[in-house]
Amino acid sequence: MAVSRRKDTGQWVCDFYHNGERIRKTLKFVRTKKEAEAAEAVIMNQVFQQVYGFDGKPDKRFDDFVVETFLPYSEANKKSFRCDVLICRVLIKAFKNKTLRQITPPVIEAFKQDFLSTPTKHGKKRSAATVNYHLRVLSKIFSMAVDAEILESNPSRRVKTLKLDNQRTRVLSDEEETRLLEALSENPPVQQIVTLALHTGLRRGEIFNLAWADIDFKRRTLIVQQSKSGKKRIIPMNATVTEMLKNMVRRGDLVFPSPRTGGKLIEIKRSFNRAMAEAKIKNLRFHDLRHTAATRMADAGADAFTLMKILGHSDIRMTSRYTHATDSAIRKAVENLDRNENFGHVLVTSQNSNVVNSPYTIEKIGAGEGT
């Protein structure tokens, strides 16, 4: 706890810590040290009242607010409601018995670091993306608390998220694709899902939501009704996809219903990972099949705007993330320069001959003539 006077402006400043959070305020209209100390005492009292609920505004337990306010909102408005439920279980456990006002930026920072250092239930290192996703949900909870006039500001905004490196360049090779599909020969539904992903670039959730009513065999197109951006899009079907879908047995409204419930399929991770192990394929995620489809289309000559429409991106920069120049494409681009019959060599040669025949020799130019 201290007050000081700034040398540049001459204004008095109070500077103190509360629950690990630094509070620094400029004291306007204060002229003496005695007045600055009195103003600091008032500010400290206001902070104390706000934190402990003595300022007339209601405080609320974090877990109660999540259950009563955030989760109903998530269920009504967010596609990621099921994920939010799992995330909120983690957050409630981390901030057990705390009120919203007691969760300060240092408390959130401590949770971030502790959660990152804690291995997953499978004993693997927790990713930065997972930690950031939890922080985003936490920030939304506090934003709703601000809207409800329980908090003055969102403490999550003062906590930095972790830096990510999502620029994966994993592409399934033709040989790996053959081995993977052979490993899935005993599991036709998953084999068909993988084939569809490789030939359309659809996301996993878009494939799981695909219904027979979304497929037009006459026009050879399929409609993505529920995309990540919330917009519908039409995807052309090539011969491989068309023939595969025509030969499939329909088991309900969905193209790939759950074999247990008949409803929407939730996950194929176990079957996919088992097939990868059998095919001896490493470092491949299901989402890399989408990356593979985009890369193959780009290598075949598809431009970025066409890919953006197929992949359903709202920003061309996202499309650039999924397409990258292969070694063969780079070599082809450079070799295209040979098509002009060594134009550059001819040009240099003709310029050199002109220099030789010119009356302005290097010696004369060096002597200052013409400059």
Query: What's the rounded overall pLDDT mean?
Result: 84
Shape: elongated
Specify the CATH architecture of the largest domain.
Answer: Orthogonal Bundle
Q: Estimate the helix proportion, in percent.
A: 40-55%
CATH class of the largest domain: Mainly Alpha
Q: Can you give a write-up of this model?
A:
The chain has a three-stranded antiparallel sheet with strand order 1-2-3, with helices on one face. Strands 4-5-6 form a three-stranded antiparallel sheet, with no helix packed on it. It is 50% helix and 8% strand. It has three domains: 50 residues; 97 residues, DNA polymerase, domain 1; 153 residues, Intergrase catalytic core (hpI Integrase, Chain A, Orthogonal Bundle). The chain is mainly α. It has 16 helices and six strands.
Q: Which descriptors would you attach to this protein?
A:
mainly alpha, 3 domains, DNA polymerase, domain 1, elongated, disordered C terminus, hpI Integrase, Chain A, 3-stranded antiparallel sheet, 371 residues, 6 strands
